Amino acid sequence: MPADARPERIVVVGAGLAGLRGAEAIRAAGFRGSLTIVGNEPHRPYDRPPLSKHVLTGQVAADASQLPSSLGDDVTWRLSIGAETLDREARRLRLSNGETLPYDRLLIATGTRARPWIHADEAKLRNVFSIRSRDDAASLRATLAAKPKRVLVIGAGFIGCEVAAVCRELDLPVCLIDSSPSPLARALGHTIGAYIGEIHRGRGVDLRMGSEVAHLEHADGRATGARLKDGEVLSADVVVVALGAVRNTEWMTGSGLSADSGGVDCDDHGHVLDESGQPDRSIAAAGDVARFPHPLYGGRRVALEHWGHAVAQAEHAGRLLVGEDLPVPYAALPNFWSIQGDMVVKSAGLTDGADAVAIVQGDPADRRFVALYGRAGRCIAAVAVDSARWLPAYADKVASGAPFPPIDTATDRPLREPEIRDPGFA
């Protein structure tokens, strides 16, 4: 089928948020042909952010997180089936049950999976958990509800910090360990990560920053603790591994697409690239798995694990596949939010590569503030801690690449000039 011909069959690989919103955009754009959604979980698309927060506290049941959808009965769902291989020349997708699925257009939205614990045998212990699926969250919720004596969380990124905060909400002793100098250091830098770490410490989290687990101690099929590389042993009767995510790209091996563990490469509109760097105009990608050049960051390729980004990019990709003329490249401002106990952290832009950070609203001592990040004299990101009302103004500065540091005034700015600090990214 020529690239400009109207498709009759569209397949969406990935039944998560991006896959769902992409499929909805395809229908909204007027496509009435065959639309199939393939997903390796047995569930219809559901919301993942509550899994590490409200599901663990028991406020929301794991099976109550299904996403609302405008899709009708004219969609074929292939669930509990994964993609195995992709034959682009024949335009066929081979599924894990041995079937083949033809397509005229393909949306790749296979997302990520939880990065496993480094020792596979220890990862199989009955009381070692990770959180990616709603089944993961349901199992961990049941375990936390049984009031374990001590929880160990390995990894102090957003998920790890959220789980630690939930444990304190449930009045459970919890230790949070990471090799970085502070929680969230990779995402927010050491300066802001250290502020947030002190908030967690003040709420009773035992922080072990700059430490690394060598292996888990265990007996009778259960973890009993963790031995650190310095020889110290931390006791625990529940271990949560929160070491980030791995992008689901293995099924594209041999397809000729430019894909690796960091994602599948796309052009500035969203078409995937082949190994020679040319776009395949029958395939687009969206969500966590898509690596694309962002114009706000000099065309640097990024793959974002953000809820709002998954929605925006999927809607763009769906319209692209149907054949809509989209002259403007995809360039939505990255944004992210995290609820950690009663603390809300929201961000706009990407902090990667920042060479300075300033507190521009509020005061970390009051646990309510906005930090603005700069690089080469321009604003590149803003992070609000319990100060979401101020974030849009600074998001505008990020979107326009405004000069850093800002010199305008605001009623809630610190009395002193904001101190510019090295963010100390790991």
From TrEMBL:
Pfam families: Pyr_redox_2, Reductase_C
Domain Reductase C-terminal as annotated: residue spans: 336-409
Cofactor names: FAD
SUPFAM superfamilies: FAD/NAD(P)-binding domain, FAD/NAD-linked reductases, dimerisation (C-terminal) domain
Keywords from the named record: FAD, Flavoprotein, Oxidoreductase
Region listing for Disordered, in residue ranges: 405-426
This protein's record includes keyword Flavoprotein: yes
Biased composition (Basic and acidic residues): 410-426
InterPro entries xref list: FAD-oxidoreductase/Apoptosis (IPR050446), FAD/NAD-bd_sf (IPR036188), FAD/NAD-binding_dom (IPR023753), FAD/NAD-linked_Rdtase_dimer_sf (IPR016156), Reductase_C (IPR028202)
Domain (FAD/NAD(P)-binding) ranges: 9-314
Annotated protein name in UniProt: NADPH-dependent 2,4-dienoyl-CoA reductase/sulfur reductase-like enzyme
Phylogenetic placement of the source organism: Bacteria, Pseudomonadati, Pseudomonadota, Alphaproteobacteria, Hyphomicrobiales
